[in-house]
Write a structure and sequence with these properties.
Tetrahydropterin Synthase, Chain A, four-stranded antiparallel beta sheet, alpha+beta, about 180 residues, 4 strands
Length: about 180
């Protein structure tokens, strides 16, 4: 009878130990899978992804501000994305007065062309235009009234300011428009 009791006690211990071994194997397998299959990208791959992302932003800002159109070949121009298809709403800001370097004043209104899908009310509440206004002041205040009366100078300032704004906003704002431009 003693033998039956001993055998009966060993059976549950073997069952429990099998479950523990299986549990440990599953845990080790899961850890191994996580470690090898879901490992973070190498620093070189992360750097390459960052460079590719930056290049996409540069191309977007070039396209939206007419910079790339001057340097593209005919083949590239036919496959290029139409900038108008990427454009969303326009955020218009109140005009501001800028002191020019020669003592004159410029009243300039600036509007931001936002990316497709942006909401003007949200952008306004977030203060989206503040950085663009600061950039406009910095670009225009060193100029003289005589310089700004030349259309090609004004257009080049607007183009560069639009590109710089697009880059500063990381593509959230695509370009700028002058809605008011009065000098005194």
């Amino acid at each position: 009878m003693a033998n039956k009791k001993k055998g009966a006690e060993d059976a549950p211990k073997k069952g429990k130990s099998k479950l523990i071994v299986i549990g440990v194997l599953v845990a080790v397998g899961a850890f191994g899978a996580k470690t090898f299959l879901m490992k973070p990208p190498s620093p070189a791959a992360a750097a390459a992804a960052k460079i590719a992302e930056q290049q996409k932003l540069v191309e977007l800002c070039d396209r939206q501000n007419g910079i790339a159109a001057n340097t593209k070949s005919a083949a590239e121009a036919t496959t290029a994305v139409d900038p108008a298809t990427e454009r969303g709403p326009v955020l218009e800001m109140d005009p501001l007065t800028v002191n020019l370097s020669d003592g004159h004043y410029l009243k300039v209104g600036v509007a931001l062309q936002l990316k497709l899908g942006a909401v003007v009310a949200t952008a306004k509440d977030d203060g989206t235009g503040a950085k663009a206004l600061d950039m406009a002041i910095a670009a225009l205040s060193p100029k003289t009234m005589a310089q700004l009366t030349q259309p090609n100078v004004r257009e080049s300032i607007k183009q560069k300011l639009g590109y710089d704004t697009c880059m500063a906003y990381k593509g959230e704002a695509l370009t700028i428009y002058f809605t008011t431009f009065v000098m005194q």
